[in-house]
């Protein structure tokens, strides 16, 4: 496993992080979850990403149990706050009330006294940014988190939040955007702003919800048990990718991957990790062997020719519009988790 500093902070994270978003929101058993966590640890992964809203809080609980007995100082634990976690008007968002209550609930579920990075899951349009940043600063100053981060904030929002964080003397060190060879939205504005500010990316969906594994074939039925066939496991996230043009292009990655002795998934992960502002890529898994196989992408260096070949294949269908990073109210029915 390779490691990298998270932005310009002193915190190092594993280049592949383990995340329990969609896979742990489905009917997967806790036994499988623990086997995946064990595979991640055996592969050298030390960075684990979750959120209060995943599986209604059960994801944090399961992760905490799976990591029980591990040396806490050897792990980097990240969780998030923003999404509705209850029926009340204040059970959501980034108000002082919700942030301060949510960190306590997350720590209880994880069975830990602190997390390493506490992340604002989205930008809250309904709460003053000053209130949010002061509440996150309180979390750090109380010792319940070492650093703060954000997820899917625009470049302007990151700049504003970072300026306030500096005033409050708390380290805003990370952003968690969707990023893959098919979703290049952060490249135009978010990544340049973060490079300037010293904020690192911990990216989600580096395999485009599994499309960049090559398992979905054009014109064919979806593999049994795959995310595309599970209405409870985020299949709606795949809709924009499951067309013959995209899937045919992904199949054209096979000879490129084979030339480097890689699978399509490993090639796709290595592509993401070539970006110097990407500190880590978050991977989920429904089987331990997926972790074991995919971590082999860490440390792979793709030369300029290979990067150009990938871009020639996927570039015409990649999403790049910065406007796709949008702020949403925590009360919005359609906001996406990451």
TrEMBL record:
It comes from the Bacteria. Pfam families: Aldo_ket_red. The keyword Heme does not apply. InterPro entries: K_chnl_volt-dep_bsu_KCNAB-rel, NAD(P)_OxRdtase_dom_sf, NADP_OxRdtase_dom. Residues 15-313 form the NADP-dependent oxidoreductase domain. Keywords: NADP, Oxidoreductase. The keyword NADP applies. Belongs to the shaker potassium channel beta subunit family. This is Aldo/keto reductase family protein. It comes from Streptomyces durbertensis.
